[in-house]
Amino acid sequence: MPRSKTDEKTRTIFHIDLDAFYASVEIQRNPSLKDKPVIIGADPKSGTGRGVVMTCSYKAREFGVRSAMPISRAYGLCPDGVFLRPDMNLYRVVSRRVMELLQQFTDRFQQTSIDECFLDVTETVSRYETPRELALRIQRELAEQEGLTCSIGISPNKPVSKIASDLNKPNGITLVEPNKIREFLAPLPVGRISGVGAKTQERLKEMNIKTIGDIQAFRLDKLVNALGKHGEYIWKIANGRGSNKVAEEREVKSISTERTFETDIDDFELISETLDKLVTAIHKHLQKTTLFYKTVTLKIRFGDFSTFSKSKTLGIYNNDKGIIASTIKMLLERFKHKKKKIRLIGIQLSNLCKFEDRQKQLTNWL
Ligand code: TTP
Ligand code: MG
User: Fold this and answer.
1) Which of 17, 139, 154, 277 is packed most tightly, with the most Cβ within 10 A?
2) What distance in angstroms lies between residue 94's CA and the mean position of ligand 1's atoms?
3) ∠93-98-104 over CA atoms, to 5°?
């Protein structure tokens, strides 16, 4: 049976992984840390601390510090390093903004961890000279908008792109041409395949399999006999036949944006100004989608971390900026009687529907 055009088409999958993510966010927040060994994790307590390193800057890696290493060992290797406790809230907020930025390059997007995602850019690359041009553009935007760097792996499938993104860190781009996948993989150790941990590596070693090339030379049925379904999974990846399915567009339940003030404030004029900026930002985001909203929510967190939100559900779906602004103004009035200083304000649009669905609804009424 002839295969459809899209089946035949070699897909272009990007795997994007941010470099030294938590450490890079800390350097972005405090640029005086640039070029210093920055280590995020438990308190080293002058070398007696318990707990581990979560990550560290590339400068710290020059001293031999690595993720998951005991913090006391890291202190021994790099006693003059800048040791910081993690600020997970900040990393989550930055991650969300980064992922929103990356999603703009395709609607086939799949986030796989706080700092990693796949993009199927098969359609997008047709607007660029080469896939590398698109990768450079993504790196540039990330640097300009967030001051962060990332490494990008490019190939026709997810597992190979993931392996590739790790090979030229930091700020690297590694492209594997479709007809060179097997030779690219062959010299790499089996542990490079995501999902091949210490236990599987041990089993494979017993069969004299150390590199991905050794798997390529191994018979599929024998590998399945030894490792069951996992064997088939590994064999397919080794032979360039891993999955290229990047999850389809997620169903977006809400769009939100928020801002934490440098110091807690009660100046309502400044709060209104900030809200105007948030309205502009959220509306800009909305315009990039085909979504309409029905519910507008204002969130406020006071200096004591107590958090409240007030919502208004409108009579109709719409995508109007003025309505967001006036609804937010109205909701803000309800907070004015509280005489507390404000730490954070945020806006959310929810009860979303796609423009196409809305048209369908309208025609149903005709
Ligand atoms: P990674 O992407 O594995 O690491 P990284 O971004 O710090 O560095 P690289 O340049 O090599 O990609 O993980 C992303 C974040 O997840 C990392 O910044 C901190 C966190 N993390 C832990 O908390 N514990 C761990 O053991 C690892 C590996 C990561
Ligand atoms: Mg990373």
Assistant:
1) 154
2) 14
3) 130
